[in-house]
Design goal:
about 130 residues, alpha+beta, Arc Repressor Mutant, subunit A, 3-stranded antiparallel beta sheet, 4 helices, 5 strands, about 55% helix, globular
Length: about 130
């Protein structure tokens, strides 16, 4: 099974990030944005609830690091795609609950379409499963 952890940090290699690293980071950031928008299309969640929902809906294959999640939520809120309000979580703790705005729903439609086109193109390159032997 493929496990993907989405984090904000580059692999610690003792070197400055290259253009390729920044492009790879932008791709992962865009993917995280899409996953958050899709999760919130199903209803409001607090941050930890978003990570659990993504993990659950990916059958455990995607694990979102909180160090990546909260900057992404701030970025999406600043773009006007999310709205946040303080509330109380299931375990009686104060938490910010995020919900999709109309603009966020339009952005989700656009990003999901782009992601589907990209994944179809990758599938074409991969072709059919290669037989072993």
């Amino acid at each position: 099974m493929l496990w993907l952890t989405i984090t904000s940090a580059f692999v610690l290699s003792g070197r400055m990030p290259t253009r390729d690293d920044r492009e790879r980071s932008a791709l992962l950031q865009g993917t995280l944005d899409l996953l958050i928008l899709r999760t919130l299309a199903l209803g409001p969640h607090h941050g930890h609830g978003i990570t659990l929902a993504i993990q659950r809906s990916s059958q455990g294959a995607l694990l979102v690091d909180h160090g990546s999640l909260y900057p992404a939520l701030q970025r999406l809120e600043a773009a006007g795609w999310l709205r946040a309000e303080w509330g109380v979580s299931d375990n009686n703790r104060r938490a910010r609950f995020y919900q999709l705005t109309a603009s966020g729903r339009r952005q989700l439609t656009k990003e999901a379409s782009e992601w589907r086109r990209l994944s179809e193109a990758v599938a074409l390159v991969l072709g059919p499963e290669l037989s072993r032997g």
